[in-house]
Design a protein that fits this description.
The chain has helices spanning 13-19, 21-43, 57-74, 110-121, 159-175, 182-201, 223-238, 247-251, 275-284, 298-301, 319-337; strands at residues 5-6, 9-10, 50-55, 77-80, 98-103, 126-130, 143-146, 215-218, 242-245, 263-268, 290-295, 306-309. By secondary structure, it is an alpha/beta fold. The protein is globular.
Length: 355
């Protein structure tokens, strides 16, 4: 992949990979669909009542998306694993009538591998979603879903994250083809590429976030994952204290930290936000110093100090794939104006080997 330029500088690897997200989804559509059909066949088995997903980091945020997406579009009950229970000398929980999916871009995180290994030892169907189909995770999988986006060299995950969402949407589409159409899947890469180009062109708008102490990111339903991934990108790249919440969880106590030094980021990617989201944003904006809205609903956008529009004509499942771009670009911009290495944030490595 050739480096590109912005202003008079050579773009970082992170920016180059961010720009590759749309093309990467287009490249993986055909092969990813074949993998998704195989995964869906496992999930549709007579002995599967629910799905357990194991992941860490950005992959854990993709797991949150999968939990909501598969529940919404297919009716499948999805739970998130507690990997600690599958190591440290513990007897792993029983997984009767479960299928188990592990998401790991590197396929090497020992605790995530451990969950899939425990499922295999209990004779349960297993799926690995990874960008490294030759990694240890794949050895324990009945089906390997290859992200197939090529090497991701910058520490912060971008194209592996959106490819994970794309892969989960393909699985949902294979399970419920009347809910997620092939046409909407094929349209997404170009929509994502446009969102990235527009976001990077206006990246300076996010400079104000450098003063955020803290940044509170809010999202519900499918956008819950986007809230967490946005907070992670801003925190790991920009060094800004940031945390993601659902709206109810925010209102159950953490809202007390909102004051004029804090910033509020609301993500609601659909064209028609829920009434409670509109009402809460209208009320909470008076407590925060600066507000951001990433949405397809003009009622939210017009109330924000910094408005990032999501196209109103995309399907519900695709909204979070587009909405996360704002968080990625914000993190990139904060890293560019900071003193650290954009591609290698302080104290972080590309592969984190947790137990």
């Amino acid at each position: 992949m050739e480096a590109v330029k912005f202003s008079n500088k050579i773009a970082s690897t992170l920016e180059t990979e961010l720009r590759d997200q749309g093309p990467a989804l287009a490249r993986r559509e055909e092969s990813g669909w074949r993998d998704a059909e195989r995964a869906a066949a496992l999930l549709g088995g007579d002995d599967v009542d629910y799905l357990l997903i194991a992941a860490r980091g950005s992959s854990d945020n993709a797991a949150r998306y999968g939990q909501y997406l598969l529940g919404l579009e297919t009716g499948l009950t999805v739970a998130l694993a507690a990997p600690w229970l599958y190591g440290h000398g513990h007897q792993p929980p029983a997984l009767a009538r479960a299928a188990v999916l592990a998401i790991s871009q590197s396929g090497r995180s020992p605790d995530v591998v451990g969950v899939l290994a425990a499922a295999r030892s209990q004779g349960r169907p297993t799926i690995a979603l990874t960008n490294a189909p030759e990694a240890p995770l794949a050895e324990h999988a009945d089906v390997v879903v290859d992200l197939a986006v090529g090497p991701e060299r910058s520490v912060a995950a971008t194209k592996t994250y959106t490819a994970s969402l794309h892969a989960l949407a393909q699985i949902a589409s294979a399970l419920a083809p009347d809910r997620i159409s092939a046409e909407s899947r094929r349209a997404l890469p170009a929509q994502l590429e446009t969102a990235v180009a527009e976001g990077l062109a206006g990246r300076e708008r996010f400079d104000v976030l450098a003063r955020a102490r803290p940044l509170t990111v809010v999202g519900r339903g499918l956008d819950y994952a986007t809230a967490h991934e946005t907070a992670l990108k801003v925190r790991e790249l920009g060094g800004v204290p940031a945390e993601g919440f659902s709206l109810p969880d925010l209102l159950h106590g953490p809202v007390a930290a909102l004051d004029r030094d804090a910033m509020l980021w609301m993500t609601s990617s659909g064209p028609d936000a829920e009434a409670e989201v509109i009402d809460a944003f209208a009320e909470l904006r008076s407590r925060a110093g600066v507000t951001v809205a990433v949405s397809g609903d003009p009622r939210l956008l017009e109330r924000a100090d910094l408005a990032v529009a999501v196209p109103r004509d995309i399907e519900e499942w695709a909204g979070p794939v587009i909405a996360v771009v704002a968080g990625q670009v914000a993190g990139l911009r904060l890293a560019e104006i900071g003193e650290g290495d954009v591609d290698r944030p302080f104290g972080l490595a590309k592969v984190t080997l947790t137990n």
